[in-house]
Structures are given as structure tokens and as C-alpha cells.
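agent> Task received from the user: take the single chain below, predict its 3D structure, and emit C-alpha cells. No templates, no multimer pairing.
agent> Plan: (1) validate residues, (2) run structure prediction, (3) serialize to C-alpha cells, (4) report one or two observations.
agent> Step 1 OK, no nonstandard residues flagged.
tool_call: predict_structure(input=
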Amino acid sequence: MRPAPSIVEVVAAIIIGSDGSFLLARRPEGKPYAGYWEFPGGKVNPEESLLRALKRELLEELGIHVKHAYPWITRTFTYPHARVRLHFYRVVEWHGEPHPHEDQELSWQFADNVSVEPLLPANAPVLRALALPPVYGITNAAEWGPQIAAARIGHALQKGLRLVQLREKGMRSKALDAFAREVTALAHHYGARILVNSGTGNESLCQELDMDGIHFTSADLMNLSKRPDVEWCAASCHNAEELFRAEQLEMDFAVLAPVLPTLSHPDSPVLGWRKLARIIHGSAIPVYALGGLQSEDLAIAWEHGAHGIALMRRIEQVRGTGQKA
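)
tool_result: status=success, residues=325
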């Protein structure tokens, strides 16, 4: 039996411009996959931390000094020449103007409209993950009533919310149908995606109302044998085991909760930011932090490896475009 190939540790940078675009580099002649586009980065040296490797590579390749970078997702991919573990960071602040220092070409791109090709095969799920906004809004008609809940969702969508979960487990079918139709229409009017919670509806409801996908409860997640045939799939997780299952089923993203005490369960055990970071570390899929959060917690969530935050009672705090909370 041939031994499994050793894994090459690699850092990769999502260098994000002020307009939400990110930088891609075209591999020069003489390297494997010459002519393919990729995220800037490179191999981690022995005894070198990931962040130090990222800063060194970007200085060598692009001539920029990284000032602020957030850990993001980790993807493993097997190429014919090597098996690599890609540690992605989102670089949001740097000094200097990126210039090609190693004969590569550079191009600023948007996740929903990448115009360069071919891309390295490992990057397809990364581009999909980049299409996810930083804030995930959750409906709360059970507490506010359908009319006020729809108004609050509509207001948040006006201010830039671009991802919504319909979560109304106790709503009766007739009222649910009317509310779901209204919120779905609102979401699509503003160009947002909407997922139905599996405790609220199922795949047939998703298809009937032309929703964009399903968000599975942690119990439903653990009972799934395969990912359903819908465009977007997400799951609620509360521990490392559930997050690992979400990765196995190739969910597009997960929500990890509760991070902080909530109004509904103020005395329940919480994860806290450090434990959330430990669970998320090395995750192959983006993770939203949920529980007792407000818009000001977005930067803290990024620092601890989360893709963003999920808001329910404080959904009206959403502000700006799809790139900011």
C-alpha cells in the first residue's frame, strides 16, 4: 500500500477592496497550473505561524504590508502534484499598492461575476462562500407578530440585509403560508436569498414558494444521510461534532450558537468567543455566530474566525450594504 501523501500547508489571502472586490493572481510560466487564476499566497515554512507566513508571502508576491487579516475557512485539496491544506484569511487592511513581483497577472473580481478563467479547481467552493454576506437575518413573528416581523425584515432588507432565514416553528399552516410568501417576496425584491428552517417547513415548501434553500436544525442535520437537492443548504450547530457533520454533508454554511446569553435563555450555558474560535478553527465551511449579538459584534466575530453574525431580535441594527453589518 502506498503511503498517503503528506499535506503541504498553504496560506491564501482574500484581499478585499473597499468596494467588496477581491484580488486574484494568474500563475506564471514555470509553475504547476501555469496560466490558472488563484488567491495570492504560498507555502508555510517549518516553525512559521500561519499569519506570519501570510504576511511574508504577500510582501514577497505583491509588495504589500498586511495590517489586519481575519482567519476564515480551511480547505484541503488533492492536486496531481501535491495535497494541500489551504488556510484562507480575509485581508481587510494593508499598506502599499499590490503589484506583481513574481511575473504574475493581477485582477480585481467580484464573487458573483468572476470574469477571468481558468481558476484553480480548489477555488470553486471558496467563491461560493465569498458570495455569502456578513449578516444572516432570522425572522421572529412568534414574538413580534407577522405584521411587525415582516415590516422589520423589510426595513433590514432596505438597509442591506441579503440573507434571511424563515424560522417560525410554532406558526399555523395558513398564517405561515401568508407570512412565508410575504417575506420571500420581500427578500427577492431586494436581491436577497431566503432559506426556510427545517422545523418550519421542508423541501416541498421551499420549492413551492421559490425559496433559495433549507436551514436544518441540529437534530435534523444529524439525521440527514445526504445533502438535499436545493440550491443553498445551511445548518444550526452547537458543538464540534455537529459542525463536522455539516462539513461532511457539504453544507454551504453553518450557524454556531449560543455565543452569549440571550433574552429568551439568559441563564443557559453559552460558548463564549474563545470556545467558538476553537470549534470553528479549521472549518471548511463559513460559520455565522449567533446568540445575544448585535451589529457591533461583527468585528469580534471576524477576529475569532466566524464568517459573520446572525441576528434575530436585533435585526433592525443591520446597516450599509451587503458587505457590512
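agent> Step 4: summary for the user.
Residues 3 and 49 are 27 Å apart (CA to CA).
agent> Done.
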